Structure formats: structure tokens, C-alpha cells
User: Fold this.
Amino acid sequence: MQSFMPLYVFIPVFGFIVSLFFNRTQEKAITNVALGTVGLHLLLVLFGVFTWLADDMATQNLKYWQLFEHDGFRFILDFYFDYLTAVFATVGAIVTFLVVLFSKFYMHRDEGFKRYFNSLLLFYIGFSFAIFAGNFETLFIGWEIFGFTSFLLIGFYRDRYLPVKNAFKVLSVYRLGDVSLILAMWMAHHVFHTNITFTELAQANWLELFHVSVNSGSLLFIVLMILIAVAVKSAQFPFSSWLPRAMEGPTTSSAIFYGALSAHLGVFLLLRTSALWQVVPGFDFAIIALGALTAMLSSITAKVQSTIKTQIAYGAIAQMGLMLIEIGLGWHTLAIAHFAGHAFLRAYQLLVSPSTLGYMIHNQFFEYEAKPITNHTPSRLRSTLYILSLKEWNLDTYQLKYLWQPFKWLGKQMLWLESLPSQLFLVAMIVLGVMIELEYVFVLSDISQYMPVLYAALSLFCILAALASRDNPMRAWWKIVISQLLIVIGVSLNVHVESAHVWIYLSTTISAAVLGMFCLHNTYHIDKDINLNQYHGYVQERPDLAIIFLICCMALVGFPFTPTFIAIDLMFTQIHDHQYALVALTAIGFIFLELAALRIYTRVYLGQHKKHMHPIAYRSS
Amino acid sequence: MQTSIFNEQHVLHELKHYLPSQSPLKDFIHHNSLHALQHLKFYEAIFKASKIFGFQATTPLSDFRKMYANGRIRDDVLQRVIAERHDEINVDLWREKALRQVYDEHNAQRIGILRNYWKAQYQIDLDTAVQPLLFRLLSNYLDQGISVMPFPIGNVGFLEAIQQLENASFVSIFKTPRARQLLQSTDLSIVKLLKIVVGNPAYFEQYLFDQQFSHRGWSGMVATVEAQPDVMLDRKNITLNDLIILDLLLEIDSLDAALGEVWQPLSQHVQVPPVDLFASVSNTELTEVLMIWQDAFEWSYYDDVLAGIKICSQDLAKNSPAPTTKTFQALFCIDERECSMRRHVECVDTQAETFGTPGFFSAEFFFLPQNGKFYEKLCPAPVTPKYLIKELNVTVPRKHDHFYTPKTHHVFAGFFASFVFGFWAFVRLLQHMFSPKMAPAISNAFSVVQPGGIFTVENIDPQLRENDLQIGFTVNEMAARVLSLLSSIGLKKDFAPIVYLIAHGSSSANNPHHGAHDCGACSGRPGAVNARVVATMANHQGVRDLLKKAGIEIPANTQFVGALHDTAADEIGFYDTEHLSVDNTKLHVENVHTFERALDLNAKERSRRFASIDTKAHISKVRQAIKDRSVSLFEPRPELGHGTNALCIVGKRALTKNLFLDRRAFMNSYDYKTDLEGKFLANIIKPLGPVCGGINLEYYFSRVDNYKLGAGTKLPHNVVGLFGVANSSDGDLRPGLPWQMVEVHDPIRLLIIVEHFPEVVLSAIKTTPDMYEWFINEWVHLAVLNPVTHELYYFKQGAFAPYQAITTHLPSFNDLHQLIENALPMRTNQLPEATQENLPVYLS
Assistant:
């Protein structure tokens, strides 16, 4: 079985690459590639399940390919197959296959026909990586691809305001989950002194094997970070409000993502890491509490929803809360079965959601009963619950106020970085850093231990300033590039890094930076105005520049399979477990890096086209 | 304060006039999207509205030019259009402008400028701050049955309900105290709040327009429900006034939350007053060029049609067909989708005769299905019937689909549902994908008449009434309706043994807009009940006796049969055939065979536009594929509705029998010889504007600006409260037609062609000002064919002028199958390419 396990990710990768070579009007070819890819994958999954059953359900593991090794840090593509993989892969392949088939007709002649199927296959790559992953690194690849395709499909109708706005909003919440996972990986690396695999974790005596104390704060940190990632992905408290807002794409993509697979990835992660958190005393109670709180709040919220898709969204969140409870109670098999049924149910409910209008009105025609006329006002508790649910327990407001606003504020304070002297200062700092690194300049060791933190802080400031910038995107882009140079210096000052690696990283960053600048520059010259205060929607005029710029963004921020992706992983593992300031600064920087870059992309290229010479959507639509 | 310059009632009235007036989607009644400006000439209205509201008024210039390049717009027609508008000598000049001149096509709208000052002044995005909560409150209050927990206070008006809810709760809807206090203040009014928000009364009107048009979908729905509460089954007491007050309160709340209570009203920051919304709009050279193109686009098609009509009329005079005995007669709706069906019926059985008449068959009534809790109106929307038909004796229980139960959203029920329904959903999905079939959740056109049910058609005792409606029609009343039906289409003699009354409806799955495909003459519902009721009337002996007195003698062996044609599935069902005589039963069996063959052909003709169906496959396969399509959840185009409609022909069938009009013509049968003075003509033409013109213009506007006047693509639509669709969770309602319905449509106005003498038609259209407005203001075109001289006339500026068609020769085809099979499918759905699918006029 191990021999063909790599196919589980390479089939989707291959299908995705092939699907890029058609144009929008070749619908048949595009759908055949998608159906062939997912169909073949489905067969292989079924074959795998049979093989695994025949093999007495023995867990399979394959250390496949070492992408990278550095000083004890090894980035290995590692594949894994156990009962959890079997169920998630089977349900995932079936749902995806059916939805692809559904979409073949549903998406016919849509302006984004090709884009849709490309994104769907990209999503499937991410799904496969996550489900078949044998270690955190491989899972993280899938996780990242997943988040990015969510952004693409929520913002699928990119010439309208709300999809673009909500795509960005969901991306920012997802970013929290990504960083939590990175931090968990960072700490795990320090706790276990190796890149631990799920096979190793599944061994009964892993605690002894790795000399880990159950009471260590580090272990608690890891599982807390995992729980945050779970809560984000499965829209648990307090992150619930993103799920109803993600229903912006075609109904089919909502079904597969937010009804069936994407949202359950949190549940998957929790099950996958159960060996880890089960040893932390009391953590199962935390999971149960989180699940129960979410189930309670969102089931009430579901009851006051008067639109079909948001009702399904909140209903689904409540069920995922229940799954958390089941997992906390140790009823993993029940949770897995619950997932499988629930994924089908929600996918189906979303797919048929347009039928609701006709069917329920028809029913009402025959079954309507006028409400008895009463003059008493509802009870205080009932009214209070109603208003709170209507306002989604203000979670969105609090998130904005306490999570994002402080950074926005900080970013605004950092706008002085735009001035010429401060630009010169930053360049000087980079030169200084390079000179220290090359040992042209010596710094007292008392000072040098603070240098990495200083550089990480400067890098973060640049990113925040880029995020807060309201005028020139080219300057914002420039600040992002500077921030990357600063952070790489910071890291290399922290520990010795092989110069070859630095060069690979720098060459990617710099080419992406230059190419991105070229796109922005060309776009600027169309109308001499691309300020970040509004959406410009230039994808309408220059789709070529838009896609190139998007690729540049991905390269710059470390999307999987770009050299920067490895660098970011490496960067984190090189931070020692006591360097809290450094890890915090780097982690926050990592959250906002992608947001700052994609903010430029969304503002300049997406949204309503600013020129009213062809039909443009109303903002509120 | 000088509030006198702001007349609240007047502004509210104006707002309601301009807001979209689409009712909840359960009843889809097509109407002119720009009804508010119908008192103006078409071009003046569209360019003015475009300037005010920012939408596109016509096809873009670049698309016109592409259609010129690909031959859809003819050069000779373009030159003639220019000559008519700008004289012969300027043809080259304007032709050059039309073809090559570069124009600034940027259309800066007026609406929203004033309210945008908030953003400019305070960097506050009021839309984002206010709309999500406002929409939620509205949708929860108006909800017809999606939410599990309904709005806690349902029996009072919207604003009062909000006040009570706020009073009864520990937490507030608002974030800040001032809005909270204002909500409960006794003198709460729009003016009071506007003074806080806007300040200067001079800006009140414009501000309200800006504000309400920032969510025109919701405001339009509220205005519609206020004007006609019965458009919702669960009635709601809401007014635009309530909505505006809440809107303003939420604005105050958001401003207070962001700035504290110290902000100044908007008018303090307005240095240059923005241009008045309704200030006149001057013509530019660009609009002139667009008008030329639009005319040229329209006449490139009309010219062929008129030429064809004239050729047919002349041929007819030369060799009029010998009268033959008819095997049967069939009355179809005037709907342009029946245009091809009639052609195929006549083709399969050359001795069959078909007629077109509005699909309610002249019987207007409310209908109460057995166990129904409401009345359904079954006649054109503007008519208010005085009669009620009830359905009795139905024994088959209604079927349910348990997947739509909101119980799956309860925590514990949802848990069990995951296990029970979840895996069942998988099986259902497989079945939907690989073997789609009719199910309770699919809207089924045939479900309006239940097997075994009987209707209370005849009223014996006029005292038998219900809610001020008479139950059934008396014999006299029945006779009057049958007489009116038969006279208007000129069917007064030569009755065949069976006369079919064939209504139409449309089945479709997963389609919130299904009502838009049903019969417009039956208020957007399938017309089966009307067909069955009128057949019963016409078979009534008492009615026949009265008809005989009125000069129409129907032979005793002639029987009327009601039927329904499902235009999506291409299926037909007949009613009460057990009452047929033995002879007629035999004939009917043969006729059914004819209809089935015709449906095969009709399905094949329709299939050429559906990429998923191979038109060249065996005809039975094509027919099955068409049927499957109407019950397929994954199919966003079960049928193409009224897409491509362009013509309305009032005259005898023989005029169009040899013309291939590609399902683009509404056809109303009319014989001028039976109505030389035009007594019936006025009544025939009167509904053509609102019904056919309404359909045509709704398609026009949804096609030229699908974003602003249409509903956009239907793929992401989210059903709101069972009355509308929106994009996403926080989006505005989307009135208008979805993209999938209009992509094949040529955005051209309707050309009505009447076979009669020009002076008779002129006096007929002048009988009511409402009817005349459609023609004099050019919202529809009107042409007349003189039946004696075969000359054509075109109605222009109040008079008929002779029309000479440029086309003299039309192509013809030998084999319809080949024509259909070889027609090219659209390459993309961009207008110049998409509408190339529409075939030219052929003589057959």
C-alpha cells in the first residue's frame, strides 16, 4: 500500500496542472480533467481502504521525500493512512466527485468557469495533503493551500464588493489558525527535538520516548495552539461569524467547502492530534466546554436566521460543536461517523437550498395558520436572546475591536516609516545587518542578543504600516519587501544559516518583489490612481497583471512549494523556545504579512471596477 | 426651521414610484423595470434614468460595433436609420461616428453623491455599518417561514415591533444611548431624524433617495408589501416610513459610536450642492450614436420580419388554401414559447388548426385548491376578479420532502439527522445526479390540477358567495366568457370535433425564479385550471344555447378539452377526457399521437440551445434529455423562458404559418374580417403593452445591465425569507431576472404587428391613454399590415407612415431537422456572440 500513497497527492497536483492549460470555453476538457482526477482519486481511495482493511487496518506510514534539511530540522513529506484518513478521504472524494459532476452543469458558461475548476482542484490538493499527512509539516502544506483556495472561492465573484470583502475577512481569521499551527509546530520541534510524526505520537509510550513531562507548559502551549487552529477552521466560539459570511461563491463551492469538507478540517485536526492533547490533564474538559458553548450559542443563532444559507451555516457550527464534545468525551468513532453523515447532509442541504423557496411556500399555502393575536410582549429573556442571536452575540464587533483594531492603530502609528529619513534608516539597518552577518562589523554580545528582536520588531512595524497604508500601494509593497529583508537578517543573526539557503530565499523574494512592483507600476499608469482607500477592480482591464501579481504575493508570503515557504518554517524552528519576544514578533508579522500583501491585491485588482462604462454591481449587492 | 421645502408625503410617494416594484418571488409578474419613467419617450427615459441611477441604458458601443462586424446589424439598415434621424446628406458623417469615433463612455451617476460626504468627511462607511443589521431586522420581520424562531412580536407594525422588542430586552439593538432614546421618543419622525443627520432641509429629499437607493432591493420590497400586503401569504404590516426611520436611527447610532455625539449634520460639510437628481439630462453625441445603433439593431431584425409578413400576405391572396375539414382545433397561449409548438402541431397534422389567445382563456377568477388556505388569482395581474372556483374531491394526499425540515438546525435533532438524513442525502444525491426525476420539492406545473378533483365552475345560486366572491359563474356569465374568447380569435364557425384549450406552465428544480416561467396571463402561474374551467363552460349545454343566439353555433358533436403544456419538460396533459364521446375518444387518441410527435420536434428545436444535449441524437433521446432537464437540480437553465422575445403578431395564423420566427413571436389570433370596426381590437391590444411589452422590457433591462437591473448570476443566490434572493449573508435583495435567463436575449424592443387597416388600429390604440402611452412614447414598436393592399405601415409620432422593407428576398430551408442540427451554438455568452445563436427569418 505504501508504494502508491504518494499518488494520493500527486494525482490532484497533476490534474491541477493539466487543467491550467485550457481556456474558459473548453468546458468539456476542463470538466473531464476535473472528473478524471477526482474520479481516479476516488477509486484509489477505495482501493486503499480495501487494502487497509485487508491488512487488518494496520496504520500505514511513508516518509516519502525530504524537501529540506537543516541543523536537525527536516522537512519531510510524510504520508499516513489510518481509520481517520480512511473515513475523511472516502467522504471527501465522494462529495468532491459528486459536486464536480454537479458543477459541470451548474457552472456552464459562467464567466469564471475555468477559474472555478482550477480552484476546486487546488482545494483538492490541499485536502489530500491534509488528510494523508503523516506529520505536522505535510498537514500544514494542505492547511495553507486550503486557506488560500477558500479566499479564491469566497471572492469568486470578484467584481462585486461583498464577496471580496468577505473573502478577505475570512482570510484574516484563517490567518490566526495558520499562525497557531505554526507556533504549535515551533514548540513541538523544541519539545521533541525532532519533526515528530503522527506515527510516533500514536505510540503508547511517546511521552517517555521523547522525555516529555506531562506538566510541561510547552505541551500545554502546543495543544492550546492546536485548539485555536481547530476553533478557527471549524468556526467555533469565538470565531463563528466567518462561516455564514463565507457563503459568497457559487452554491456548489459553498456546499463542498462550508457544508462538507473545509469546515470539518478543524474536527479532523483535533482527532489527528488526540494522542497529544489526551495526556494534558483537563484538556478534554476544555474541548467539551468549547464545543458546548459553541453548540449552545450557534443553535440559538441558527433559529433566528431568516436566510437559508446562514441558517445552514449556524446549524452546521452547532453540530461541529457537538463533535468537539464527542471528541472530548473520547467517543472518537461516534465523532467520525457524525462527521461523515453531517458532511453529506449539509452539502446536500446547500445544493438544494434554492428549492426551499418553491417548496416551503407551496407547503405554507396549504398549511398556514395565522398566529393568534396576542398583546402580551415576549419575556425579557426571550427578547434578549433574540437580539443577541440576531447580532450574532456581537462576536464580530468584539473581534474587530479587540483583535484587529489594536494592530490597525499600531499600523497607523507606523506610517512615519513612509518618510524619507526613516526609509534611509531602514536601508541602513539592512546594510548593517548584512555587514554583521558577513562579519565586517562586530557587535558586543550583550547587544547582539537583542539584534534579532530589533530586526523582527522593525519588520513587523513595516508590515503593519503597509497594512494601514491608505494611499500608494507601491510604497506599501516596498515596505513588505523591506520587512522580509529585515526578518531574514533577524533570523540569520539569531542562528547561523547556510548562505545558500539565504540566497534561495532572497532570490525568490527579490524576483517576486520586482515583478510585483512591475505589475503595480503598469497598473498605476492606466489611470494614474491606485490608492488603497478604495477597490479599483483592475482585473477587469488587466487580468494578466492581476494573476501575475497574485502569484508574486504568494511567493513573497510563503505559499507552499515556494522557497519562501520552507524559509518561514525554517525561520520558526530556528527561534529558541525561550525567545518569546522574537517568536511573538515573528508570528504576528507572519499573520499580517499575507494580509498586507493580499490587501494590496484585493484593493487594486478586485472589487467593483471603478470605471462606469460597462455594467457594475451595486455595492450592497 | 424651513421644513416647508421638504414635503415628506411627496418624497415618500416619489420614492415608492422609483423603487423596484417586484413582488415576492412566489408570484413573478413581469413588468417594465423602468415603469417610473414611462411617461417619457423611451430614449429620453433610459438615458435619464441611466444618469441618475448609474446603470447602462443600452448595449455597450463596443458590442454594437462587434455585431455590425459579424453581420447582425446590417449596413443598409444602419444607413437608413441615420438618414431618418439626421437626413440623407449626413449619413457618411454619422456612420463614421457610429463605427469608429472614440467616446468617453464613463457614466458618473448622480445617486449617492450627497451621502458619500460621510466617507469623505469622517472616513465612515455607513453602508457597512448600517446595512447588515438593518437587512437582518427586515428579513426576520418579513420572513415567511425560514426561521425556526419567528420574530417575537408579529402582530404590530415593523417600527412598533422593534420598539417593543427593544423595550422588552436587557440588551439593545443599538450600540449607543441617543439612538435608543430616539427610538422610544413620542415624536419620532423622519423629519426629526433628518434634522439630526442631514441638518439642512434642502438636502432631505436627495439624502433619502441616496439612502434608500443604497439598498434598492430591500426598499423596493418594503414599498411593494406596503402597497399590496396580500403579496405575502403571512401578511406583514410594514411601511417605507418605518424602514427610513430605522435606517436613520441606525445611521445615528453608527455615527455616535464612531465619533461620539459631537458630529455635525451632513449638510454642514457640503460646500458645493450636488446636482439635483432629477435635473434634466442633455443629449450627447454618444447617446445619439447609441440611439442610432439601437434603432439599427432593432430594424435589422424587424425589416426581415415585416418583409416576410408582406410576402406571406401577398402569397395568401394569390393562392388561398382550399377550406378543408379540420381534425382538431387547438387554442394556445399567445406566449412566444408556443410559437414553435404550434408550428410543429400543424406540421405533423396538416389538417389541424391552431390559435393564439391570452392563456387565461377569457375567464378571470380566484382559485381555491382543496385544503388551500389562500386564493390564487388566475387572470392578468391588473384584473380583480369577482369569482371564485373551488377544487373539491381530491383524494390523493400531498407529498412531502423531509429534507427541508428546519429541525436539522436544532442541536439534538440535527445530531440524529446527521445519521439518518446524512447518509440518505448521499443516496439522494446519487439519484439526482444519475437519474433525475420529479419530486415534491420540484415545482411541478401539473400539480395545479390534482387527479380526481372537480371544480365548482357553475353557479346555480348567486347567493353562494365567499369573502365577497361569487362561487362559480352563472350560465350567462359563462356564455359571455366563451363568446368573448371565440370572437376575439375569430373562431365562429367550422368547428372541428375536438377543440383543445392548451394552457402552459413550467416545471423546474432548484429555481427560486420558477414563477417567471409560468403563464403571464395567469399572474405568473400555470394556466391549467383556466383551460379546464373554460372547457367545462364551453361544453355546457346552456352556454351553447346562448352562444347559438349570439350567432355562434357549435355542433353538438364538438367537444372542448382542457390541457396543459409544460414548456420546460415538453410534456402535455389533458383533462376530463373521460367525458368525450365514443367517436371523439377515438379521434382524441389519434390527436394525442399528433401532440406527442409535435412535442418531440419541439424538444428537438429547443435542444439546439442546450449544450448538454446532442441535438443530432435520436429524437426520443433528445425528448428524454429535455424532460430530465426540467427535474435536474444541477440545471440552472431548465428552459430559457421568454429569452429572445421580440415580436407580437395580431392577425390570422395563415400570415405567419410559412415564416420561421425561431420562437420569438407572441401570437394573438385575430381575424379583421369578423371585426371590421375594431370593437375587439382595442381589448386585444390593451394587455399587449403591460404583458408582452412588460416581459420584453424586463428582459431588455436585465440583459443590458444584469448587475444593476437584473439579479446577476443565480449561482450564488441565497433564499431570503421565502420572498426573495440575495447574494451572501449581508447582501441586498436582487430584483430582476438572473443572468441565466437572459443570456440568449437580444435586447431589442417589442414590435407589435397588427393585420388591419391603419385608421382602425389608430383609433383602437387611442381608446385609453394608458394603452396609447406605450406606443406614443415608443416603449414598443407598432406596425400594421393592410390586409387588402398588403402594404405595411409604421406608427411614428402619432400617425401611421408607409413602410418599405429593404429586404426583398428571404432565405428558405427544406429540412427543419437540418436547420436545427446545423445551427451554431454560442461560443461565449457575451452579447455579440451569444445572440448569434438566434436564427434569421426563413420562409418555409
In short: Residues 161-192 of chain A form the longest helix (32 residues). Chain A touches chain B through 111 residues (CB under 8 Å). The radius of gyration of chain A is 25 Å. The first strand of chain A starts at residue 60 and ends at 70.
